Amino acid sequence: MRLDIVIPAHNEEHRIDRMLTAYRAGCPHPGTRFHVALDHCTDGTAEIVRGHQRADRRIELHEYPKLGKGGVIAETFRRSDADLVGFVDADGATPPAELLRLADVAGRADGAIASRHHPASVLPASRPLSRRLTSAGFAFGVRRLLGLPYRDTQCGAKVLRGDVARDIVAHTTSQDLLFDVDLLVTARDLGHRVVEVPTVWVDQEGSRVDPVADTRRMGASLLRLWAASLRRRVREVAGAA
């Protein structure tokens, strides 16, 4: 079974080498491909990835204009023809073994997502309070507004069956940090079953999350996703009538 792992990256020259080294060693199967999707990188990330390409033919480099994290993931999903396709953040917070565990679960469902808020998950005790509160508050808002059952929609590790992924991104519109929620809302509206799985997660320095600015921006985007989901369900009911 072939697995495509999409790694979205924006100016990750300080972390991408370590991340690719770990994933190449931790995911040795020849049917696993690594698609590094660069979102308007202006640093040395591409050259570092090309160095890994010379050593491992499983690595593919995609260079995009400024599409946003969600935009480069969706575009790379559309290009994939693998049995399973997923994405993982370039910071290395999700160990390779955890992503492979998601792939195993996704192969028996429609998809699987890692959850930092699952009771069985293993997280560092020192995770900053501001990030914990922001994450928990956002998850609560997602459950209340969109009716999603998940404890954690934003953990950067998700795997779907290839046909399911391509079906979903044919309908998603978000190109920013809300892509994760858009993906899950669309999956639900289309009737796909995505399972939440506990994970081991290692907090990484250098987070680009701004708790205040991102919460405001994502709150407005949530309302747009709610409206899009409502329109989709209304069309489905009208079509069935």
Explain this structure.
- Residues 5-165 form the Glycosyltransferase 2-like domain.
- It is an enzyme of class 2 (transferase).
- This is Undecaprenyl-phosphate mannosyltransferase.
- One of its GO terms (molecular function) is undecaprenyl-phosphate mannosyltransferase activity.
- InterPro entries: Glyco_trans_2-like, Nucleotide-diphossugar_trans.
- This protein has 241 residues and is of the alpha/beta class.
- It has one domain: Spore Coat Polysaccharide Biosynthesis Protein SpsA, Chain A (Alpha-Beta Complex).
- Helix content is 46%, strand content 17%.
- It contains eight helices and seven strands; from the N terminus they run βαβαβαβαβαβααβα.
- The chain has helices at 16-26, 45-55, 69-79, 96-106, 129-146, 162-169, 179-189, 211-240; strands at 3-9, 32-39, 59-64, 84-88, 111-115, 157-161, 194-198.
- A seven-stranded mixed sheet has the order 3-2-1-4-6-5-7, sandwiched between helices.
- It is globular and about 55 Å long.
- The mean pLDDT is 91.
Q: If strands are numbered along the chain, what order do they take across the biggest sheet?
A: 3-2-1-4-6-5-7
Low-confidence stretches: none
| DSSP summary: helix tally | 8
Q: Which radius of gyration do the C-alpha atoms yield? A: 17 Å
Shape: globular
Classified by CATH, the class is Alpha Beta
Largest sheet: 7 strands, mixed
Tally of distinct domains: 1
The CATH homologous superfamily is called Spore Coat Polysaccharide Biosynthesis Protein SpsA, Chain A
Query: Can you give the helix content as a percent range?
Result: 40-55%
Q: What do we call the CATH topology?
A: Spore Coat Polysaccharide Biosynthesis Protein SpsA, Chain A
The N- and C-terminal alpha carbons lie at a distance of 40 Å
- Average pLDDT works out at 91
- N to C succession of SSEs: EHEHEHEHEHEHHEH
